[in-house]
Amino acid sequence: MRAVAPLRQSRIAGLGEHRPAGRLTNDDLAARGLDTTDEWIRTRTGIVSRHVAASDETVVSMGIDAAAKALAASGLTGADVDLVILATCTMRNAIPGGAARVATGIGARGAGAFDVNAACGGFCYALSVASDAVRTGNAQRVVVVGSEKLTDWLDWSDRGTCILFGDGAAAAVVTTADEPGIGPVAWGSDGEAYASVGVPEGDWAVRMDGPAVFRWATTQLAPVARRACELAGVDLADIRAFVPHQANARIIDALVRALRLPEHVAVARDIATTGNTSAASVPLALSALAGSGAVEPGGLTLLLAFGAGLTYAGQVVRIP
Ligand code: COA
Fold it and tell me: Which of 89, 120, 124, 229 is labelled catalytic?
C-alpha cells in the first residue's frame, strides 16, 4: 500500500452567501401576536430582524446559490471541485443528505459528497474535514457549505426560542496553498447536556433551555478559542478578526471580554440582521466581515462555532 502523500497546506480561496429576500422584524413578530417587544429582543439578544426563506427556497437550493458564488469568487467552476461537504441540521428528510444535490447543482459531477450534522458547530467541523482532505491529497478543491432553513423547525408561539433563529446559507472553497491558511481545529462536545437545545423526540420544533445554553456558552467556550490559537501557533494579539457563532450579541460580548480581545480586532456582529442561522451562521458572518473590508485579505481570523449536541469547534483561518 502506498503511503499518504506528504502533507500540503490549505486555505479558503473564496466565500459566497445566500440571504433570503424575506425579512421578519421584531415588530413583525409582535404584530403576529407573539407576547414580545422589539425592545426586549434587541436588548436581550441584539437581533433586529432575520431572513426567512420562501417556500421554494430550501437547504439545498440556498446551498447551491452560496456555493456557486463562492466558486465564482475563487475563479473556479463546479468542474474543478472533487468534494462537497454540506453542514446542516434542518433538512426536512434525513435520507438522503443534501450534499450530492448541491454538488450536482454547482456542476461538480461525480464529486464526493456528504452532510455533517454538528448543529450550529457544523461549519467549523466541516471546514476542518475539508482542510484535512486537501492537506492529505484526498481532495484538491472542496466546497464547504453551511445551509439552514430553521424556520421550518420553529414554534412561532414559543417566544423563548422562535425570536432567535433565521434562514440562510454561506459557502467556502478550500484549496491547496503555499502557506498555512486554515489552522488545526479545537473541537469537542458535551452529550450530557444534549437536552438543553434541540428538537425533542416526538416533538417537531426546536426547544431550548435558553438560560442554560447562555451560561454554558459564556463560561465554557473562551478556553476553546484560546486552544484554537495555541494549535495554530498564533497569539491572540495577532488576531485581526473574531467570528463567533451568532447566537446572542450578549454571548459575543461576553466572549470578547473573556478573551480580552484588543480594540483593533474586528468582531463579527452579523446577528443584528440575520439572527442565529446555525451551521450557516459562522460562514455568513465571515462572508459579511470579509466583504465589509474591515479585515485585509490574509488577516488572521478566529472562528468559533457552538451549539446543539452540545458541540463546539474553532480554528484560525486567513481571510481570502
Ligand atoms: N419577549 C419577552 N419576554 C420574554 C421573551 C420574549 N421573546 N422570551 C422570554 N421572555 C421572558 C421570560 O418569560 C422571563 O419572564 P419571567 O421572568 O416573567 O419568567 C424573562 O423574559 C426572562 O427570561 P429568560 O429566559 O431568563 O431570559 P434571558 O435573558 O436568558 O434571554 C434568551 C433568553 C433565549 C434570549 C437567552 O437565554 C439566550 O440567548 N440563550 C442562549 C440561546 C442560544 O444561544 N441558543 C442556541 C444555541 S446554538
Answer: 120
Please say if the pLDDT value at position 233 is more than 90. yes
Q: Does residue 36 line the site of ligand 1, with CB under 6 A? A: yes
Dump the DSSP string for 43-68: HHH---EEE---TT--HHHHHHHHHH
Question: Closest by alpha carbon to 62, among 152, 147, 153, 162?
Answer: 147
What was the pLDDT predicted at 126? 98
Q: Is any ligand 1 atom within 6 A of the Cβ of residue 123?
A: no
| 304: enclosing H helix or E strand | strand 300-307
Residue 6's pLDDT band (boundaries 50, 70, 90)?
Answer: confident
The kind and range of the H/E element at 241 are strand 241-244
CATH architecture of 9-177: 3-Layer(aba) Sandwich (3.40)
**Cα(57)–Cα(137) distance, integer angstroms:** 34
Residue tagged active-site, from 124, 162, 229, 245: 245
- Residue 158 CB burial class (10 angstroms; 0-12, 13-18, ≥19): middle
Does position 162 have pLDDT exceeding 90, yes or no?
yes
Fold matches, 9-177 and 186-318: yes
CATH number of the domain at 186-318, out of 1.20.1740.10, 3.30.2000.10, 3.30.1330.40, 3.40.47.10? 3.40.47.10
pTM over 0.90: yes
Tell me the three state secondary structure of residue 41: helix
Examine the residue annotation and report whether 245 is marked as an active-site residue of this protein.
yes
